[in-house]
Design a protein that fits this description.
By secondary structure, the protein is an all-alpha fold. Helices cover 76% and strands 0% of the residues.
Amino acid sequence: MTGATSHRSTFGPTAGIGFILFGMLAISVNDVLVKQLSGDYPLHQIIFARSAIGIVFTLILVQAEGGWRILKTDQPGLHALRGLLVVIANMSFFAAFAVLPLADATALFFVAPLFITLLSIPVLGEKVGPLRMGAVLFGFVGVVIMQRPWVDSETLEVHRFVLLLPVLSALTYAGMQLLTRKLGAVSKASAMAIYIQLAFVVVSALFWLVAGDGRYGGHDNASVEFLLRAWVRPTEGEWVLLFGLGFNSAIIGYCLSQAYRLSSAATIAPFEYVGLPLAVFWGWLIWSELPDWEVWTGMAMIVGAGLFVFLREKQKAMELARGAARGAEG
């Protein structure tokens, strides 16, 4: 029995659901704080401060889960790849909502579960039937609607490249979650969170070395400017926000890793959709933003497709389990 299976049988799905719900709440708060800071700070500075502070809190969790020895791994390459994927996922998503309303960017990002279904075919060797594949295609039609291909690029409020950033984020996040399934059987949640925080620190430090003085800043595109503007000395009040981001990032990394370790993806992944109403709520409360009809339509299609895929996966797993039980009895 693997470590992941042992954890799942001990705690059941309830703990995993609890961790994913708390993690999604922390993610929504994280998104609000980053968007709030996006007008003045470069993204790589926010990421560096968030992750450097987050490492401190995550190390406390490492000590609670077994000490320094749990940081040792026999698969450093896979952990490095997982860290790189989550860095790309975060930075592309954050760059998008420097321009996009929070709900729009979040809705586009939630195509990630459909990418997970597609990538599970070559990566995990899973079979996807026509019903699930049809649902995936239906969800991607929702993405196309949100891209508004019938609107001329010159009259579109944002650059089409910006509309594709959350989709890129979803794709790389899906790859990260597939690696989490592979690595979660032998790695503690706090250790996996540390590896991700380190990846953020390294990549953002490299950004600082290349563009931290603002030499590549001054762009009209707000997303590009968010990536490349010069570092800024935080005010006393903004240090509080950055500290909150760091503490929050430790919670996010631990909760998501723990959720996918304790429960199957088919059980907990549907609960990630709680992030959508949270994004709509925060966008309305803080920035007076409400999605237009294209976003509502695409959002409904993406969520409907994702939930159908998860329910279908659960049904297929139950059918396989019943078949195996009948075989054992025979």
